[in-house]
Amino acid sequence: MPIIRRLPENLVNRIAAGEVVERPASALKELMENSIDAGAGQISVRLSDGGLEAIEVTDDGCGMAPDQMALALERHATSKLPDEAIELVTTLGFRGEALPSIASVARFSIESRPRGAAEGWRRVVDHGDVVEDGPAALPPGTRIRVDNLFAKIPARRKFLRSGRSEYAACLDVVRRLAMARPEVGFVLEHDGRRVLSVQPGQTGPDRVAQIVARELAEDGVIIDLERGPARLTGVAGLPTFNRGVADHQYLFVNGRPVKDRLLVGAVRGAYADMLARDRHAVLALFLDVPPEEVDVNVHPAKTEVRFRDPSFIRGFIVSGLRHALEGAGQKTAQTPAAPAMTAWQAEPIAPAPAPSLTSLFARQYAPQYTPSPNRVSEAGAAWRGYEAQVMAPAQDLPMGRAEVSQEPAPEALRHPLGVARGQVAHTYIIAEAEDGLVIVDQHAAHERIVLERLKAAGAGDKVAAAQALLLPEVIELDEPSCDRLEEAIPTLAQLGLALERFGPTAMLARSVPAALGKGDVQALVRDVADDLAANGDALLLGERLDLVLATMACHGSVRAGRALNVAEMNALLREMEVTPRSGQCNHGRPTWVKLAHGDIEKLFGRK
Question: Cβ–Cβ contacts within 10 Å for residue 1, how many?
Fold first, then answer.
């Protein structure tokens, strides 16, 4: 029978480190939270190689005496629980495991000096063993340095990612804590270069706009609501100011950054009828509730919480967000400056050869229907001719009337998708076919057409046709997004999107895929960066290319809400008929539905 034994102290610390210290960002989070709890007004962070080589956190907080410093390096020793009422804790950290856990898997040095003390004290622990203990010279406060995390634990070290990826995670930690504490100043340096600097004493909205996106100052609404004991504050982006991933949503409970499913679901519910399913709001929300109404001791890293009344919290957030967004009235996100919409060369795009009919149409429609080569080329040329007008900015679009056609409508018998008879809500095309009524989602349909054209242009080893910008476009992003785009530059160039690094936090776009026509370069590059962030490391190259192409196609397609005349509608229908997989858009939604004559007769009781 196995014998139960007490584990040695160093092994206990390493097991605890597995819960608390997953990567450099985890260690950085614990150290910064200690600095905040110590009353620091200024916190400086220095990283080397994304924190893999070194992490240093310096603060001007209360400091520690030598005997307190020795206790801080023991397990389950903390100053943050004055009594046993753990449910009423108001500090960011309280477990008392972070420092000894970090010191057991790295070379750990701590220097601290209380205010009024003549000198400071320094202690160095190398993977659990104290190697130095003596006086040190430093100003009041604390400085902690962590070198070579997991250097002597190769089983853990090999699971860490590249320096760039680890740096991105560390930057996210600093940004979240900086938003949570606008009264504290933060400085972040990486490999000797200052990356982030915010001054103490800012307001919450100003701090959020500075860190998340400067556009939030104009394209967001301030939230400040109270209901009973709960208060909700922050900044919420307008529905028209959105991103392709949910990584730009920052949630805080009682000043603690969290990633809680209840809160994320509440945000999604608040924007449910204002955003497409593949778009996400940009916001920072701060929820304050009495400590006894929330349990923060659910997760070792304290990133999840549990509410006593989750239905009240969800309802409060959903109604609060909707009320604030309704208060914005007809306000929408600011449109890009004129050069972003007009910096395209006027040279015509060489039309790509139209693909053959998909088997979907061959099965569902009359088998004798086979488009002739001239009809295919005529359809493709017609639609590409109309695209220049259709995809222009709305104010430049000639507004055609659906009931007026400039040429006789073709017979419905000649076309599987019929002939256009009108447009509903500037979104759906109504067409009459031989055997029923066809309703087409114009944006979804054109999205598939553009995607297939992009795939055909970049098939095999050939380079997709590119359309150079008259004025190169500068797109400002955060540094990790620029790093991901820089790594993908050769691949994106094959697709026709030519980018260059333009400083630490900007990219320069020189050309876009010719198949896209006119569009918003800023939004395109941001969404491609979001796709790489969400899927770049987890998917194979082919899958990543498909996702990037789908994002490009969405930006290059005619939008819902754009008025089309009859000729333009028919051109889109003919292009759909010769495009593979045109029955569904890039997101799996149908592009058209059909009501057979029999179905219509049943609706009116004729059958």
Answer: 3
Q: What's the pLDDT at 526? A: 87
Please tell me what DSSP assigns to residue 560: T
pTM of the model: 0.68
CA 12 to mean position of chain CA atoms: 37
pLDDT digits (tens, 9 = 90+) for 523-559: 888 888 887 887 665 444 455 556 667 776 776 666 6
Q: Over the range 406-439, which residues count as b (16 or more CB within 10 Å of their CB) and which as e? A: eeeeeebeebbbbbbbebeeeebbbbbbebbbbe
Backbone angles phi, psi at 167, to 5 degrees: -65, -40
- In the predicted model, residues of the chain with pLDDT beneath 50 are 335-376, 388-409, 538-541
Do residues 51 and 102 touch, judged by C-beta distance below 8 A?
Answer: no
Q: Is residue 96 left, alpha or beta, with left meaning phi > 0 and alpha meaning psi from -120 to 50? A: left
Q: What is the pLDDT of residue 530?
A: 84
- Cβ(272)–Cβ(307) below 8 Å: no
Beta bridge partners of 124: 109, 132
Nearest Cα to Cα of residue 352 among 384, 375, 391, 387: 384
Question: Helix or strand or coil: residue 297?
Answer: coil
DSSP state of 590: B
Give the dihedral sign, CA 167/246/476/527: positive
Dihedral angle, C-alpha 245, 248, 249, 254, nearest 10 ° = 150
Beta strands in 370-427 (DSSP E): 419-424
